[in-house]
């Protein structure tokens, strides 16, 4: 059980840190989150809580279930795209953890409407 909560706890921290960076840069929030981002974080944390994979959880981007609602998924992806590279400087450990987790997803290559945004 301790392992599960450690893993999930790390994910929670990652989510929070990423949304904080995104909110500050995009929404000019100086402290905490704006309403939208707060809702997004609450939603993301709830999904995490309910994640049936527990300790075996893959990166959310790579998850076969895709429990996020489509609109929330778009938003969390925007957050990750924006904050991901910046995380390396602010939260080296969390960032490394996140990059490692998400790496395998690019091999799938099936993005119905992603298009040019997916190109490196
Ligand atoms: Zn915001």
Describe the model.
The chain has 120 residues and is mostly helical. The chain has one domain (2-102). Helix content is 62%, strand content 0%. It is built from 4 helices and no strands. It has helices spanning 2-27, 35-50, 70-90, 92-102. Helix 1 crosses helix 3 and helix 3 (70-90) packs across helix 4. The longest helix has 26 residues, at 2-27. The termini are far apart. 17% of the residues are buried. The model is unreliable at 105-112 (pLDDT under 50). Bound molecules: zinc ion. Residues 23, 27, 29, 33-34, 36-37 line the site of zinc ion.
Summarize the structure.
The protein is mostly helical and 120 residues long. The protein is 62% helix and 0% strand.
Radius of gyration: 14 Å
Low-pLDDT ranges: 105-112
Helix and strand sequence = HHHH
Relative helix content:
55-70%
Q: What fraction of the residues are assigned to beta strands by DSSP?
A: under 5%
Number of domains: 1
The first-to-last residue Cα distance is 38 Å
Describe the main β-sheet briefly: none
Q: Would you tell me the structural class of the helices and strands?
A: mainly alpha
Ligand inventory reads: zinc ion
Tell me the total number of β-strands. Answer: 0
């Amino acid at each position: 059980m301790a392992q599960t909560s450690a893993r999930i706890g790390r994910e929670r921290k990652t989510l929070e840190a990423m949304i904080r960076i995104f909110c500050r840069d995009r929404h000019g929030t100086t402290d905490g989150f704006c309403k939208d981002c707060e809702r997004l974080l609450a939603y993301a944390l709830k999904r995490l809580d309910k994640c049936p994979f527990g300790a075996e959880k893959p990166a959310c981007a790579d998850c076969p279930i895709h429990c996020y609602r489509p609109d929330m998924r778009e938003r969390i992806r925007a957050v990750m795209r924006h904050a991901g590279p910046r995380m390396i400087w602010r939260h080296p450990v969390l960032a490394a953890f996140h990059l490692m987790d998400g790496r395998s997803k690019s091999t799938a290559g099936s993005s119905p409407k992603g298009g040019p945004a997916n190109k490196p």
